[in-house]
Amino acid sequence: MTSDGYDYTNDGMRLGWGLRNSVGLAEHPDTGGIYSVENSADEIMREGEDVHQDNPGEELNFHGYLNGTEYSPQGSNYGYPYCFAAWKPEDLPQNDDLGVGSNFATGDQNSAINDTFCAEYTTPRLTFQAHTAPLDIKWNNSARTGMTL
Predict the structure, then answer these.
(1) Phi then psi for 68, rounded to 5 degrees?
(2) How far is 130 from 59, CA to CA, in rounded Å?
(3) Average pLDDT of the residues in 37-56
(4) pTM of the full structure
(5) What is the pLDDT of residues 69-118, one digit of tens each?
(6) What span, in angstroms and rounded, lies between the C-alpha atoms of 7 and 100?
(7) Pairing status of strand 45-46 against strand 49-50
(8) What is the DSSP track for the chain?
(9) Quick one: pLDDT band at residue 2, thresholds 50, 70, 90?
(10) Cα–chain-centroid distance for residue 96?
(11) What percent of the chain has a predicted confidence (pLDDT) above 90?
């Protein structure tokens, strides 16, 4: 860094936004891919029902690369604060066409914020059971297996 500091608006690279509480960040040792694990929200309501026991799921997100490899969704929006990943979609009221990992809208859906709106955002690479609270990502020595802790 120079004495002028770092101008992140011109020199930085956005990997993603619309993320909630990404607590673990790791670079894949072979590919250079950047991953994060995210602890999702508690006390979620949908259409007046408390759905937080099994939704939303925790997330493993893939953000792209820092090594110049092209990845078109790099820098994309993951939907927070309006959209979350479903873990148990059958427990969500008005859950048309939602599967595990699908983004869903919280609160009361309306013409602006709804599941169709949320489907436009980047979904997690992997969704974990609600409340498991992954905190970190580690790779084994051969870099073939990633583990969340």
Answers:
(1) 95, -10
(2) 9
(3) 95
(4) 0.89
(5) 999 999 999 999 999 999 999 999 999 889 999 999 999 999 999 999 99
(6) 39
(7) antiparallel
(8) --TT---HHHH-----BS---EEEEEE-TTT-EEEEEE---SS-EETTEE-TTT-SPEEEEEEEESSS---TTTT-B--TTTEEE-SSGGGSSS-TT--TT-EEE-BS--SSSSHHHHTTSPPPSEEE-TT-----EEE-TTSS-EEE-
(9) low
(10) 21
(11) 79
Structure tokens at 141: 């020595």
What does the block give as tokens for 20?
A: 């909630």
Write the DSSP assignment of 86-118 as a string of letters: -SSGGGSSS-TT--TT-EEE-BS--SSSSHHHH
How far apart, in whole angstroms, are the C-alpha atoms of residue 105 and residue 139? 33
Q: What angle do CA 148, 124, 66 make, to 5 degrees?
A: 80
10 pLDDT above the threshold of 90: no
User: Per the structure block, which two tokens stand in for 6?
Assistant: 């770092």
Q: Which of 88, 112, 107, 108 is nearest to 98 (CA)?
A: 88
